[in-house]
Each structure stands twice: as C-alpha cells, then as structure tokens.
Specification:
Layout: H1 12-18, E1 34-41, E2 49-51, E3 57-58, E4 65-67, E5 75-86, E6 94-102, E7 108-111, E8 119-121, E9 133-143, E10 151-159, E11 166-168, E12 178-184, H2 188-196
Antiparallel strand pairs: 1-12, 2-11, 3-10, 4-10, 5-9, 5-11, 5-12, 6-7, 6-8, 6-10
C-alpha cells in the first residue's frame, strides 16, 4: 500500500519576501527597546503662551504631542524642551506640568506628576522686582498609560501670584519648541520605579 502526502501550494517568492531578516517584528523586540517615536515642533512664529493665572491653564503651542502605543503594557517617555520668561524676579514661581489626554476615552485627563504641581522654577536678581527672567527648560516624564488608544500629551502652567506674567515659548525661538513621545517596550526596571512613586 502506498501513502501519498500532499502539501498546500505556496508561492516561494511571497515566502521569501515575508522573511525580511532586516526587520524584527514589534512583538519580538526585547524589554527596553524603542518601538516608535512621535514629535511636535513649534510653529515658525507666534509661539508664546502667556498667563497670569494662579490655576493651571493650557499652554497653546504645547497641546498636540500624540502617540498611539502598539502594546498595552508599554511605557511612554515624554520629553519637552522650551523657553520660559517671568516678568518679576522676587518670590514669583512659575509651575509647569505635563498631562495625558486619552482621546479614545472621552478625553479623560491625568496629570503625570504625582505631586500635582509638576516642575517649578524661579529666579531673581538681588530682590529686584523689576527684572525679567528668561531661561531654557526641559521636562521629562515616564508614563504607563495601559492603553493602545490615541494619547495626547500637553503642557499646562501657572504662577503663584497673579501680579506676574509667565510665558512658555518665545517668538524669537523659531522652531525651538520641541516635544518627543517615545514608546518603550515594557521594562521591569522602569515599572518598579513607577509603582514606587
């Protein structure tokens, strides 16, 4: 008695194309790998966002850093670089924080800084209230959103006394407003740090 074995037909050219050894599938990337990055660049002009509010308010040119994670357990490293200005020097504090907006979840918002105030900075020249302070600032947060929906990161800011104007961005800093969101494959080291925060 003879036994016949048959195999389904396949296209050798297609199979070779699928075996692209120069590309690793996302799901095979090891923990800590960068999966994707998105960027936000400021406009070519008119990039100032001023406020005298003592409550956090949106900074207009820093509202639309978007990323949709490919994995639900990914970490998102959110980084910002910008200029700031403060119109008084003595005992006036400028606060800036980063907020996640979940666009696929009724725009639910969550502040990424556990203290609620983000970063703060101030400066003065020998107590002279008439001085104006300019400085470059960077801000970074690690987020564990547990989502594959579209996420939008934005900056908010406020001042501790409404007699002072604070500013994010600077018209003279053309294309210098910069944001970056990096999806990182789940990494136990960072996860432990987030749980301990």
């Amino acid at each position: 008695m003879s036994v016949r074995i048959s195999k389904p037909a396949f296209n050798l050219r297609n199979k070779l194309t699928e075996s692209d050894y120069g590309t690793i599938p996302y799901y095979k990337m090891p923990p800590g790998s960068i999966i994707q990055q998105t960027f936000l660049m400021g406009p070519t002009g008119g990039a100032e966002n001023q406020t005298t509010s003592t409550s956090f308010t949106d900074a207009g040119h820093f509202q639309n850093l978007r990323i949709a994670p490919k994995f639900i357990d990914s970490l998102i490293l959110v980084e910002w670089w910008f200029q700031v200005k403060k119109t008084r020097g003595n005992q006036r504090y400028h606060y800036v924080r980063c907020v996640r907006v979940e666009e696929d979840n009724s725009d639910r918002q969550e502040n990424l800084d556990y203290s609620g105030n983000g970063i703060m900075f101030w400066g003065h020249y020998d107590g002279d209230d008439d001085q104006v302070n300019y400085m470059p600032v960077s801000l970074a947060e690690v987020d564990a959103p547990l989502s594959t929906g579209m996420l939008r990161y934005k900056l908010m800011h406020k001042v501790n006394n409404s007699d002072t104007t604070v500013r994010l961005g600077e018209n003279g800093q053309t294309r210098k407003l910069f944001g970056r969101a990096t999806e990182i494959r789940s990494c136990a080291y960072f996860e432990e740090g987030l749980r301990g925060a």
